[in-house]
Design brief:
globular, 39% strand, 96 residues
Amino acid sequence: MSENEFENDDIITLLSDTGEEIAFIEIAGIAHKGNFYALLQPVELIEGMSEDEALVFSVTRGENGEDKFNIVTDDAIIDAVFEEYYKLLDNLENQE
C-alpha cells in the first residue's frame, strides 16, 4: 500500500518523539465517552504489523486550534474504540 493510493486528506503526518516524520492513513474517527479518537495506520507498516491493524490515538485541540495526536496504550480504551468502529462498519453494511 503506497501513499499515492490515498487522497491527501487521508494522510496525516505526525512527528515521533525523536523528530522523525511518520505518515499515517486515517482509517476512522471515533467518538467515545466524550473523547475523540483516530484510528491510524502507518503508510509504511511497522515491523510485525499486518495490513489489517491500526493504532488508536486520542485527538485533542492544541492552544492554537491544531489537532494533537497522542497514542493510546490503555487496552480498555483501545478495545472500546475498536468496538465502536466495528459497530459503525456493521451499520454501514446493513444499510447497503
